[in-house]
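Input.
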Amino acid sequence: MKRDMDLVRSILAKVEEEGKVRGWIRDLSIPNHSAEEVSYHIQLLAEAGLLEALTRKTLGNLQALPMRLTWAGHEFLDAARNDTVWNKAKELVKDKGGAVPFEVLKGLLIKVASSVFGLG
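Output.
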């Protein structure tokens, strides 16, 4: 399964909105994405240190349930939250070949945000 950065952004936003201090979010549904796809991306986000998640096996299926964003997750979401910034960064990535490492995307988002908001 390919990493989908739009889905990553959606998951982070939804977890921020519904996050819990204790326990996990049982039903994190994202329109136009299967439960398997969402769970896979939650696992990726946990591995990257952007959120805390509970991973469990049920009848041979691996399920990841998000709990809360980490500091790094909040930082990335703050950089990616604005639609103008997000779309401009995605357009720049697409123009250069379509895929970049996560840290490059994060840096690009910060750079684009600085430009859009006149901070840099």
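The longest strand covers residues 61-69.
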